[in-house]
Amino acid sequence: MSSTSAGGADVPRVEEGSLAVPEASSRAAQAGPRRILGLALPTLGVLVAEPIYLLFDLAVVGRLGALALAGLAVGGLILAQVSSQLTFLSYGTTARAARRHGAGDERGAVAEGVQATWLAIVAGALILVLVQLFAVPLTGAIAGGGDIADEALSWVRIALFGVPLILISMAGNGWLRGVQETRSPLGYVIAGLVVSGVLCPVLVHGLLGAPRLELPGSAVANVAGQLVMAGLFLKALVRERVSLAPHWSVMRAQLVLGRDLIARSLAFQACFVSAAAVAARFGAASVAAHQLVLQLWNFLALALDSLAIAAQTLVGAALGAGDARGARGLAARVTRWSEIFALALAGCFAAGAGLIPRLFTDDPDVLNRTHVAWWFFVCIIPVAGVVFALDGVLLGAGDAAYLRTSTLGAAVVGFLPAIWLSLAFDWGIAGIWSGLVAFMVLRLVAVSWRAWSGRWAQVGVEVPKQLG
After folding, report:
1. How many domains does the chain have?
2. Which pTM does this prediction carry?
C-alpha cells in the first residue's frame, strides 16, 4: 500500500484486489436505482435552476424594450463564454475528489476542493481584468457597434464581477459531488437564485422605492445572487476544517485534467456555432426551427447529464478504493438505466411531434422546418442515453484525454463536414441535423469501445495522468 499527498495529508492508495476496500466504495459500486436517483435528482435541480432563472431575467428585461433585450443577449453571451470554458473546476474536481472519498480519505477529497477554489479565484480574477480591458471592442464586435453595444457594455461591466464567484461555485459543486453530497449544492444554488430573482425586477424597474437602474439592475441582481452562492460554498469548505493553503502540485494536476476538458468544450462550441451560422443562411424560419429543437435538445441533455454525474461520482469512488470490477458493473447498470430513460423520452417526443412545437410557435414556416429536424432529434435521443452515461463513467475514471480526442475526432469527421456540405449543396435544416446525428453516432462508437476495453478502470487514489 503506497501513499500520495493532497493538501499536505498522506492518503492511502488501495490497489485492485486489496481486501481493505472502504465501505463507502463498496456501497458506491453496488448502488441501486434509489441511490443513483438520490444523487441525480438534486444534480438535475442544480443544472436546470440557472436556465430557468435566465428565462425569468429575460422576461423582466424584455419589458424595457428591444434595445435592452438585445443588450442583455450580447452581454449574456460574453459572460457565458468567459465562464463556461472552465467547467473542469466542477467535473475534474468531482473525478479527483470521488477517488479520495472512495478510498476513505475525506480530508483529501475536501483538499481537492480547496485547490480547485484557489484556481477559481485566480482564473476568475484574470478573466475579470482581461475582459474589462477589452470590453469595448468585444461588445462592439459582437453587437456591430451602436446603441446595442452601449447597452451590452453597461451590463457586462457589472456582470463580470460575478465571474470569480461563478467559478468558486463550480469548484464547490465539484468537490461536494465527489463526496456524494448533492443536496447542499442544490440549496446553495436556489438560495442565490432567489436573491437574484427578488432583486432583478426591483432594481430593473425601480420597485419598492429602489432606484430604477434598468438593464444594469439585472447585472447587479446577478452578481448579488452569485455572491450568496459562492459564500455558501466557501462556508461549506471552511466548515470541513482542512488546510486552506494553496498547493501547486495538486493545482497542476487539476489543470492537466482541465486542459483536456477545455479542448473538448471548445469542440462542442465550434460545432454548435457553425450550425447556427449555417442555419442563418437558410433564412429566419430555419434559424427559429433550429433554435427551438436545439433548446429542447439542451434541456434533454441536462436531464441525461444528471445520471452521468451520478455515474461519475460513484465510479470515481469505486476506483479510488481499488474496486475496478465494481466500477465496471456500475458503468453497465447506469448505462442500462440511462438508455431506458432515453427511450422513454424518445417515445414522449415522438408522440408529441404534432403538439410540442406548437407550444412555442404558430408560424407555419417555422413549424414546417421544425418537423424536418424533429425526427432527427427523436432518433438521436436513444444514442444520447448511452453516450452521456458513458461520458460520465469515463469522466469519473479521469479519462478526459480520451474524451477530448474522441470528441474532437467526431466533430472533425462527422459534424463539421455535414454542416458545411449542407450549406454548399443547400440541404437545409435536414443537413444540419444529419451532422448532429453523425457526431453522436461517432461518439457512441468511441465511448462504447472504450468502455468495453476496460482500460479506463485504473484504480488508485490519484487520477491517472494518461490512461492506457
Report:
1. 2
2. 0.80
